[in-house]
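ok trying this again, last paste got cut off
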Amino acid sequence: MNAVSVIVLWAAVSGVAALLAFVLAGIKNRDMSFWIAFSFLIPPAVLILLVLPKRRGTRPRQPTLDELDASET
């Protein structure tokens, strides 16, 4: 297995992990953008998301840049 094959394999696994994280984060009411990015960089993170319990209440969201700027002043 040469280097190009390893890189392509890693990219495929990362893409599948990100898609799986997107679906699981939606089902478990977690922050989707965090879990997609984290699972893309470290594909085994999907396993962590898989064992986390479902979160009750509203889905957490990141504050917008305007909200962050307003809180600094």
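PB: full thing came through this time. The chain has a mean pLDDT of 91.
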